[in-house]
Amino acid sequence: MALRAFGGDLVLMRDVGGVPRMFDAHCPHLGAHIGHGGRVVGDLLECPFHGWRFDGAGRCVFIPGASAVPGRAGLGSWHLQEIDDVVMTWFDPDRGQPDWTMPELPERSLADWTAFHPAKTWIIRTHVQELVENGIDLAHFAHVHCQQTAAAESRRIEACGRG
User: Fold this and answer.
1) pTM score, whole prediction
2) From CA 60, how far away is CA 157, in angstroms rounded?
């Protein structure tokens, strides 16, 4: 799957065991976008241009007709974590390892858990930090949107001039 995120082109795949993997999308050979025409061959990601194949760490492990693979040939790989059926990546412009990992929701295994099934896919063209900073902010709903929340009900009435 071709993706555009974090200011660059990425490609997302699942290996034979179902483990998600994400890489920078352009082949180090001639720059072909692997997300357009590339394919998964077993556990390897294959470039559509000359068939170079990359393992789960992004290392080139096969070049058709070559007797050796250059040691530095590879794709930049991204740290992924799949929790509760959601695939997440850690963004660090310097490609550092995560400072923490997302915990699983213990409630998800309960019999009365209701799973979320999105009806629509959204593409939001913004920096990832904007989503967190402008997401669910209960304190502002009453004042900006005159929208009821349990935590802000008394403030909503005053802020919307209904008090």
Assistant:
1) 0.70
2) 62
